[in-house]
Design brief:
Length: 132
Amino acid sequence: MDRLSSVSGPCDAGYFCSLSGGVEARPNGSTAGFGPCPQGFYCPLGSVNPISCPPGTFAGVILSQASTDCQPCLAGFYCPTKNTSRPITCPRGHYCPTGTVDPSKTPCPIGSACPEGQFYPKPCGAGYYQDQ
């Protein structure tokens, strides 16, 4: 086959090729518009642009290839926006179960304590209360 008359193939999964004129399946990012899929995104085979992981998920590594590489946000943390690469610690006064997008939607209930990084409301022990 004449190498000048056809393309060799698509960009590999885990990489993106957003401009014409690509010369490799696994670009290293030294040329603008081509490179490894960044954190917070995934790039299936033939990606023109990286695809954002949705809110409530994160991708903390480069070269993610599929939507399944976007992990649910960890318990005790939240992932408020698309393309999150590093989960944020749940603030005190709230709890953040797995996949939390907005901790303001899970305030600590009366009769419980929720220190920073809490993933479930901790009921007050015998002899203690919390009325706020």
